[in-house]
Amino acid sequence: MREDEQQPFGTVDYARLQNLSEVVVEGKGHSNITNLKKLRSFQASDYRGVNKTLADYPSGDLLEHLSLTSCNLRSLDGIEKSPNIKDLELTYNRSLADISALYKVADSLRALSVEACGKIQDFSVLHALTNLEHLHLDGSTHLPDISFLANMPRLKTFATTMPIADGDLRPCLAIPYASVRNRKHHNLKDSDLSKRL
């Protein structure tokens, strides 16, 4: 490497570590992170990508678990480059507004957790996630309804703190474990829902 190509002190160059199967990164100091094609699990916290999409993150056929916390994502565009993703956790991604790309991994996705990603207003893609087994939605965004649960025959657990605008919790009755935050306009209470694991 020429002197003018050297990375800043404290930067990890992942071009030299391409055989890793699990990586956890936090903040700055990471270069060539998209070169990690053998990853099975990737977790990032406070990572700032240039494109503000999943194009800034590792992807590949082997990636099964992706956890992103407090990253500067605006959309999940690029998720299709990880066609075998099974578990996706999105936490405190305050710029994330568009999750519609999830339909591109609907066949493989088994667990989805969205927590405190307040700019997401459109959850209609959930209707396409028919293979989900675990769904967790936490935050203050209003869900119009939870009719998408009827399209998830494999769902084992559903938990949400989000307000459900139409108040109809009956779709939860078919799920082995369901938990919701009690609200006055709901037609059922959390205690009415199954808690079998």
UniProtKB/TrEMBL annotation:
This is Leucine Rich repeat-containing domain protein. It comes from human gut metagenome.
